[in-house]
Amino acid sequence: MGSLITHNPAALQALMSETIFTNGTADVVAAPETAVPESERIVENIAPVTTEEFIYQGDKSTGILFILRYPAYPYFSPQAEEAFVKTIGALKLTLQNVAVLNLANAHNPNDFKRIMTFFEPKKITLLGVEPASLNLPTIGHNAYMKGRIATVFNTFSFEEMFADVDKKKLFWNEFKTFIST
Questions:
Q1: pTM, full prediction
Q2: Are 90 and 3 part of one and the same domain?
Q3: pLDDT tens digits, one per residue of 29-40
Q4: Pick from 132, 159, 180, 153: which is nearest to 66 by CA?
Q5: 77 and 32 share a domain?
Q6: How far apart are alpha carbons 70 and 88 in whole angstroms?
Q7: Other beta carbons less than 10 A from residue 49's beta carbon
Q8: What b/e string do you get for 111-130 counting C-beta neighbours within 10 Å, with b at 16 or more?
């Protein structure tokens, strides 16, 4: 079996069952040659793990960022993902041309300034994430706040919208306007 080398943090997270930390150097401590015979070694050299500051889905270059907090899922529950894909699809967007950030992932900092610096978004949608948790001013549900660089739209999580059709209708009317401006 050959060496498996990846620098993709999401792939590493999916493949590994243990937490890996690196100090960013290429120094690898090798076990003594007698510990494991050459013929039984699986990985001979381990490249340093280089990760981006955030683990996210999609493309951050488009300037459209969705921030959510789903502790039980990498991004969305299956039902919420289906609704999300349909929703953004109606506006000619896809999972590949927007960025989705789950703040429940322990790797992702819950720091709005770092989010702004890394993603450089123009439009941010908070899906069930309270603005105060990011040290933002109060923004009502289905309302947005225009900043110097980006506009932040605060709305409900998809689970909240599944439970209340009125919330879903309010979201959709405002979201269409928000994305098209």
A1: 0.71
A2: no
A3: 444 444 444 444
A4: 153
A5: no
A6: 19
A7: 16
A8: ebeebbebbebebbbbbbbe
